[in-house]
Amino acid sequence: KKGIAVDPGATEEIQAFIKELGIRLSYVVNTHTHADHTSGNSTILKSTGAEYIDMATLIDEGSIELSGEVIRVYHTPGHTRDSVVFQFGGIMLTGDTLFTGKAGRCFTGDLKRFLESMKLIMSFADETIIYGGHDYVEEYLQTAKMVEPHNRAIDAFRAKYDPHNVFSTLAEEYKINPTLRFNKGSIIEVLREKGLPVETEYDRWCSIMSIV
């Protein structure tokens, strides 16, 4: 069995997991280079002998092959300039680009490219399973509820939230996540009430990102 460690912060848990399942770690990679995502790299690399693939190589090559399977790497600048997401089968690891309930913070300040990155993610099938880089579910669902207090889908998702297995599907995000719902009438009405621009898709994206 071969494996890849993505953003390996929980080093002890990762080491125990790969030992228990007999996994030989082939690569260590990151979704972006913020310290909270790279802090465990050296420990895992030393303990496993895995190969590190840097961000530039990931972006340039666009894929990783593991045991005959291809893991796609998509450059998604916005949160950082070097942000990427990993996609294989029906699963996507989105790092801090997209969380359950909200898009990540746009530390680059380039909301135009961030919108392009978000639309890339949104081009995948509704059934795509999203694993974000952190568990901010409670906080972000509360924010979503403040934006759309009558959105029952948010309550339904909160009721089934499991902090031991944090994920969503794109279909669920379209129901609960205000930063993916910027073209929906209910969100546009909220933005209008706040006096924010809604004329173009980019206007709506910038407006929703300014309030969440």
Give a verbal description of the structure.
- This protein is an alpha/beta fold.
- Helices cover 42% and strands 21% of the residues.
- The chain is built from 10 helices and 11 strands.
- Helix 1 links the parallel strand 1 and strand 2 (24-29).
- The mean pLDDT is 97.
Count of helical stretches: 10
**Alpha-carbon distance between the termini?**
42 Å
**Main sheet overview:** 6 strands, mixed
**Poorly predicted regions:** none
Q: How would you spell out the order of helices and strands?
A: EHEHHEHEEEEEEHEHHEHHH
Helix content: 40-55%
Classify the beta-strand content into a percent band.
15-25%
**Overall 3D shape:** globular
Going across the biggest sheet, name each strand in turn: 4-5-6-7-10-11
**Average residue pLDDT:** 97
**What Rg, in angstroms, do the CA atoms define?**
18 Å
Helix-strand category: alpha/beta
Find the count of extended strands (DSSP E, 2+ residues).
11
